Amino acid sequence: MSNSEKSGRFSWPAALTIGVLILAAAAVFVFLRLETWPARTVGQGTEDIERLGRDLRSAFVDVAHLQPRITINNRTVAEGTASPAAELATLTKQLKVKREFAHTWAGSSKRIKLSGTFTVKAGFDLRQDVTVDVRPDEIAIQLPHAQIVGVEEDRVDVLALENGLWNRISGADLENELAQLPEMARKEAIEIGLPAEAEQELQHQLNKRIHARQPIHLVFTSPLPTESPASIAPK
Predict the structure, then answer these.
(1) Residue 135 sits in which domain range?
(2) Is the pLDDT reported for residue 9 higher than 70?
(3) Of 70, 74, 75, 66, the residue nearest 54 (C-alpha)
(4) Is residue 114 part of a domain?
(5) Helices 194-209 and 171-191, interaxial angle, to 10°?
(6) Which residues are within 8 A (CB) of 186 and not within 5 positions of it... i.e. 6 or more apart?
(7) Tens digit of pLDDT for each residue in 40-59?
(8) Under 8 Å between Cβ of 182 and 148
């Protein structure tokens, strides 16, 4: 028998053995990949969520100059720090109000009529806790409802100062009426929904700044702003 015939007989078992070993190794590799796939997926998801948490923190610093407490799946990853500004104004509107006061005593009447223009700012009180909870299905941001955070006087005009014969306008009368104008502007801003517009503006800014797959939900932790009866003045 020649050497070529002997080598031909031994090559088939060797080839078969090598093939079996290759198939076994491939099967083990596939099995291990499938078995560790959930863990690898969770790990990648956690990394993505933590990266999103850092992006959220940066976004709040840019938008609100605020570093909120951030939790990821109920685990705190960043503690909140105080903001150098106590309030965040997200919406500004100029309002004009008018007020008239009349008083008659013993047949003598006095009248004051004023007009005021004010810049009213709506925003958020940053002294209250602001937290961000990042979950796989949503981003929940807890913060107080927006409120009126500033009323600045632009212009006040005295339209009428009419004294009665013995019922005269006093300095206290004029001072009291002037003090009512900014309160009227504040009340009107609430009536036209300026705080609600400020909340919508914050939502818009965050959506624009944060590109996340999860929806961003604002969860308000304070009651809606209302005006106290003492600050309601007739026009």
Answers:
(1) 60-231
(2) no
(3) 70
(4) yes
(5) 50
(6) 120, 148, 151, 227, 231
(7) 433 445 666 667 767 777 77
(8) no
